[in-house]
Request: fold
Amino acid sequence: MRICDMRTGISFKVSPADRLRLEAIVRDRNAPQKHVWRANIILFGVDGAGTAQIMRETGKSKTCVWRWQERFMDEGVEGLLHDKTRPSRIPPLEFQVIDTVARLTLEPPPGETTHWTAAMMAKQTGISQSAVRRIWRTHGLQPHRMRQFKLSNDPEFVTKLRDVVGLYVDPPAHAVVLSVDEKSQIQALDRTQPGLPLKPGRAGTMTHDYKRNGTTTLFAALNVLDGTVIGKNMQRHRHQEFIRFLREIERQVPVGKLIHVVLDNYAAHKHPKVREWLVRHPRWTFHFVPTSCSWLNAVEGFFAKLAKRRLKRGVFRSVVDLQQAINRFLVEHNGTEAKPFNWTADPDKIIAAVKRGHQVLDSNPSASLIARGR
Reply:
């Protein structure tokens, strides 16, 4: 047991256990540096060093050395490992001010402004913008954000949903289930200047402006059983092109297989000429998803992957370049990345969520009229 006497009023004892613990802190390469120099202040003092020498060894001021010696005297080693809570330099806001900010945020802002900003709220309530942000953060308010939604008003929503999900989960025997849609107006964009490649410490670059070199439309049919895609590029997306794509599918699907097609309610899909074509091809059956439910069409996932991996950052000097790039992506997908489509969402939960959404809209008459297009 060593007793260390420093300036008047500071005298502490260092037990063998305390010394071992202090030395362990100094040796620990992962210990915070502030803990290391605090432990050294005590160890140097125990070993007979005076205040001036401790100041030189640790690089700390006299008041700092005395402060931590006094802390060790009062609280031991634990006192060196914890900083005392200091009072905030910012006076706390009154409850009425906090309540006013929270209440106003839930109301429309004055004038024709669409949403509250921190600057507007600070001016309105007479507090700082940082204080407004703290209140919003505490109350979970984010007026700068807006989530988008779309509820289907299809009167046959439940029937169509269960029909399509049933095809995904339990496909009919001796049949092919295809998710069909078209990705229209795919632009062949060429950049006005070459970008710089990715390198350590710098992201790749690409000019924000571009040159349009035409567009194409990709018709695609995703086989939900194995994940392969039948695709064909065309200039337009009318019913004529759609029938041509159906003929392409007819040629590629083995004879004797029934064809069940999941598709959206685009007018070209319901054109009289298309219906006449279906009558002449009895092995085909169309299953339409509910209106405003494009997320139910499995091929949309393939379109998203195509856009992300091949189109978004692509540079295409002509429509031919664009179509060739899409065709190469189709080949790569079918060759190495195709896998069965696995539907996991519970249709009962989807139906319940849609019902809750309509109930919320119905409770707000003005929002309900806007959402229903009245």
Observations:
- The first helix runs from residue 16 to 27.
- DSSP finds 15 helices and seven strands in the chain.
- The radius of gyration is 35 Å.
